[in-house]
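Colleagues,

For the teaching module next term, I've prepared a clean inverse folding example: a structure given as tokens, and then the sequence designed for it. I'd like students to try predicting residues themselves before seeing the answer, so please don't circulate the second half yet.
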């Protein structure tokens, strides 16, 4: 493309983005706007700080909304009043992509930035819980295997567990961590019953409700998009368990300890090789339509690729580094801004 052509494209893109923004907003923003996962938030904030330092741009604005709520904001439209990037602690759903497309957000770049684990943790003075996905499902499901949950103590779900009240502080329904909890732990526990696997084939909606619905009688406490609050709650109560991203466990190792899942402790090594049942990838989603009109967006995305390697600063923040082939693929996508193929989504 000629210089004249490139300039014309930029002007047209700016005008189009301004029109899509509507509502009397400015033609553009002079900073990057990011929403989404509380798990990805500390990594995103670190990249934002470094981008501003290296590039001299305004520091990107990062908002911890939860993956689900962030997706709604991200998919609401293009233009300066809508976010440029969505942080996600699980992959975008096909239904979310459909919402994006319906609102004109059709060109999306998906970049896997690292790994994390859904860590179960207790206070350093806790009883030393050892759980399995089936234990967690029986303890937290609203209707385990289709029957009302009457379990009060952990010993009610597994006689080898302590006779202490079930009290778990965890993420809300808008959180990607909650989605991953449902997929990686609760559903696995639910499908320990062959009848539940059969139900999935017969009635997917009923299967989802029985396998992922969480009780609301106080045994599970929705703690909002504030993982630090969960850390505080369980550090003050040695009989409680918390669920959050692994980086928060590692950051608070002086007052918390991990809870084993199927005998595997949540550690950097067990998450990186996926031997820990709660291991999961982390993503950012970028609006292609904003790349040429939001100042600093390209620089911010490029900074991620500098930060996620074995020698990068995100490792010191608690991020589990993705395998070399994944990093290479992600770096290529970040450089070329290759668009996501929606056919890959579920």
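(Answer key — instructors only)
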């Amino acid at each position: 493309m000629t210089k004249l052509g490139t300039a014309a494209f930029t002007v047209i893109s700016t005008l189009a983005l301004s029109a899509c923004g509507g509502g009397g907003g400015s033609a553009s923003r002079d900073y990057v706007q990011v929403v989404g996962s509380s798990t990805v938030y500390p990594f995103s904030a670190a990249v934002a700080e470094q981008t501003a330092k290296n590039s001299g741009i305004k520091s990107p604005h990062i908002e911890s909304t939860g993956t689900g709520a962030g997706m709604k904001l991200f998919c609401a439209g293009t233009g300066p009043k809508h976010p440029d990037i969505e942080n996600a602690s699980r992959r975008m759903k096909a239904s979310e992509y459909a919402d994006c497309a319906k609102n004109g957000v059709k060109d999306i770049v998906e970049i896997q930035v690292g790994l994390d684990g859904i860590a179960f943790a207790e206070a350093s003075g806790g009883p030393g819980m050892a759980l399995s996905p089936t234990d967690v499902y029986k303890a937290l499901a609203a209707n385990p295997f289709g029957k009302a949950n009457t379990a009060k103590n952990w010993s009610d779900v597994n006689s080898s567990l302590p006779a202490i009240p079930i009290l778990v502080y965890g993420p809300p329904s808008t959180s990607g961590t909650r989605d991953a909890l449902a997929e990686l732990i609760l559903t696995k526990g639910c499908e320990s019953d062959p009848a539940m696997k059969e139900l999935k084939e017969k009635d997917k909606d009923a299967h989802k409700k029985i396998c992922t619905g969480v009780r609301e009688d106080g045994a599970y406490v929705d703690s909002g998009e504030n993982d630090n609050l969960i850390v505080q709650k369980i550090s003050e109560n040695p009989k409680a368990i918390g669920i959050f991203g692994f980086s928060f466990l590692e950051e608070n190792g002086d007052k918390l300890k991990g809870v084993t899942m199927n005998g595997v402790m949540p550690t950097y090594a067990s998450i990186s090789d996926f031997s820990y049942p709660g291991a999961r990838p982390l993503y950012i989603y970028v609006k292609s339509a904003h790349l040429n009109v939001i100042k600093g967006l390209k620089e911010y995305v490029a900074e991620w690729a500098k930060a996620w390697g074995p020698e990068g600063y995100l490792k010191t923040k608690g991020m589990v580094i993705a395998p070399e082939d994944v990093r290479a693929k992600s770096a290529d996508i970040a450089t070329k801004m290759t668009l996501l193929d929606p056919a890959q989504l579920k």
